[in-house]
Amino acid sequence: MTDFALGPFLMSGERLIWILATLVLWVAAALVSRKGRPDLNPWAFRAALAGLVGARLGFVAQNADVYQADPLSIFAIWQGGFALWGGVAGFAAMTLPLMWRRREMTPWIAASTLPALTILFILGQLLRAHEQFLPQDRPFIDLAGTQMTLEGPAVVNLWATWCPPCRREMPMMVEEAQANPDLPIYFVNQGESPEKIRQYLSSAGLVMTPVLDPSLGLMAQTGILGLPATLFVDAEGRVTRAHIGEISRAALRQGISDLKKGTP
């Protein structure tokens, strides 16, 4: 699964694609607005913002029960959680009325939108072309040293005790694992000793069965550059989605629900 390091920041490939598409939209609108043509810059900014807000509100609506219990988490957008349909609705709500009121702008708006859609399609296809699978050629071990394999469908969380976002999300993820016994969540520790892991679990009061990956082989094979990372794996062992960074309860539940329904 592809992610990118931008200086000290780590970003998933999917998020980077959307950012690039937004930048392309703004640049295209700026170019189209030259030489006496209609000024599309205000529209491009507002439409992109409306798309972002719509995508977030759409996801919040899909997971209303989670956000009712913790309303402030609606603003934790770094934890992920966006609905494509909501983004399309927000973009359309800002664009279609303008095209209706000022029909002479329609071809220029289309000319600005087309490059952004092209970037989304091409980079999205390239990202899907780099499919990753859970390794089946080597076993992992648990704290007792017993060998085990990771099989889908499942959620795989890559973590370490020195990682603050890992520690923040861990209690929530353990709760969700206990609430979904029919779909395993594997907590794969990256590079730490059994003693260090036992000490952390004892001090945090967490009851779960960690998986040890002392050589960080799973990070290397899936192309993950930082922790935490949460992988959603289908029945064939294919990584269908990867969330880089701390994940919200709603995003985790959505991923689990999709795996249970067999959707990518």
TrEMBL record:
Alphabetical GO biological process terms: lipoprotein biosynthetic process
Domain of life: Bacteria
Pfam families listed in its UniProt record: AhpC-TSA, LGT
Residue spans crossing the bilayer: 16-32, 44-64, 76-96, 108-127
GO molecular function: antioxidant activity; disulfide oxidoreductase activity; phosphatidylglycerol-prolipoprotein diacylglyceryl transferase activity
PROSITE patterns in the cross-refs: THIOREDOXIN_1, THIOREDOXIN_2
Protein name: TlpA family protein disulfide reductase
Organism field: Falsigemmobacter faecalis
